[in-house]
Write a structure and sequence with these properties.
Helices cover about 15% and strands about 40% of the residues. The chain has about 200 residues and is mainly β. The chain has one domain: Immunoglobulin-like (Sandwich). A hairpin with a 2-residue loop joins strand 8 and strand 9.
Length: about 200
């Protein structure tokens, strides 16, 4: 499989519900930026959030009339496409996001993959026979399903140092698809991503 960078966020659409998965083929706009770091890239998108009434009350006409606030969502991503069809198969992304119970945004790892998946098993990132991160599918929308990986106590270092890194996920036929993951540029992309989060 060859790696090609496209635009559309895993966390922006899966966790924040703000971007449409149909945006994958859009051209860059002033609200989007992409920086390449070897086989990884940092993609940032501006997302509009609906205005809210003060004090947590139900939205009023005044609040509704306010211009929606913009929030920048940045992700470090690697994208995988089918060589024959050119269609995206999957993308792995890292982003700083707030999970349930989080007071501050923490680094999270996610996956967006074509819908032909099996929920009987879960995706994982491996280095040869060693599991680096285990994932869990969370939902499907349109032509994609989303999963979130658990980042262990060693953080992303095992993936950065991996010699035979691969993304593995089950499909509906029962087969497990394995796609090579390149760690080249991941460390640099994550450093930039951390800066974007500040």
């Amino acid at each position: 499989m060859k790696r090609i960078i496209t635009r559309s966020g895993v966390f922006a659409s899966a966790l924040l519900g703000a971007l449409s998965v149909a945006q994958a083929q859009e051209s860059p706009t002033p609200g989007r930026s992409t920086e390449a770091f070897q086989d990884w890239s940092v993609e940032c998108s501006k997302v509009q959030e609906a205005a809210k009434a003060e004090g947590g009350e139900q939205q009023t006409d005044d609040a509704a009339a306010k211009k929606p606030e913009e929030k920048r969502i940045c992700e470090a991503v690697q994208v995988y496409r089918n060589n024959k069809t050119g269609n995206e198969i999957a993308r792995v992304a890292f982003a700083y996001a707030k999970g349930e119970g989080d007071k501050e945004a923490t680094l999270k790892a996610g996956l967006r993959v074509i819908v032909d998946v099996s929920f009987k098993n879960q995706p994982k990132l491996v280095d040869g026979e060693t599991t680096l991160m285990e994932g869990a599918f969370t939902r499907c929308a349109a032509t994609y399903c989303f999963a979130e990986f658990t980042i262990g106590k060693d953080g992303t270092k095992p993936l950065e140092d991996a010699q035979k890194a691969a993304l593995q996920f089950p499909i509906s036929s029962g087969r497990v698809i394995s796609i090579g993951v390149s760690p080249k540029g991941l460390a640099d992309a994550l450093k930039v991503l951390e800066g974007r989060n500040k």
